[in-house]
């Protein structure tokens, strides 16, 4: 071992990995919860047109309520699947979760006019999820 290398005791390495495992679990739970909320929003768009604040005739921002409801149902399902997959520790679930969180940020920016506080909250959670899944993934995965 050279002078510049430092040896990390196994107990410290294990606790650092365990801390990042907690972040991954948090990310998986947040994705699943946000996905479930998006499923509820999808059903609300399909069955209650007066739920959404901003509307122009029968359209909501980028389409009609039925289209938006179907998109939200599919999107919520993808978020729930990514969240559940993360708990298994699979690499595909991490890629899906990061992709879903990135696209979610773009979707929430488009939806910002209708629900600004909700959109900003989801954007913040998505950023935290992306951070949790990209920073020190190998340490967290070793603990899963």
Automatic annotation (TrEMBL):
InterPro entries noted in UniProt: DUF7144
TM region(s), chain numbering: 20-47, 67-86, 93-111, 117-134
Superkingdom, natural source: Bacteria
Domain spans labelled DUF7144: 23-137
Keyword Membrane among record annotations: yes
Keyword Transmembrane included in the entry's annotation: yes
Pfam families recorded: DUF7144
Keywords, ordered alphabetically: Membrane, Transmembrane, Transmembrane helix
Protein name listed in UniProt: DUF7144 domain-containing protein
Protein species of origin: Solirubrobacter phytolaccae
């Amino acid at each position: 071992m050279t002078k510049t290398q430092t040896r990390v005791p196994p107990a410290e390495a294990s606790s650092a990995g365990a801390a990042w495992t907690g972040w991954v679990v948090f990310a998986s739970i947040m994705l699943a919860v946000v996905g479930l909320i998006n499923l509820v929003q999808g059903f609300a768009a399909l069955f209650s047109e007066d739920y959404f604040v901003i509307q122009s005739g029968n359209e909501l921002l980028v389409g009609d309520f039925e289209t938006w409801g179907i998109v939200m149902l599919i999107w919520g399902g993808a978020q729930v699947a990514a969240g559940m997959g993360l708990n298994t520790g699979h690499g595909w679930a991490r890629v899906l979760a990061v992709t879903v969180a990135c696209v979610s940020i773009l979707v929430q920016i488009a939806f910002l006019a209708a629900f600004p506080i909700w959109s900003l909250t989801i954007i913040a959670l998505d950023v935290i999820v992306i951070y949790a899944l990209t920073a020190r993934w190998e340490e967290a995965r070793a603990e899963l």
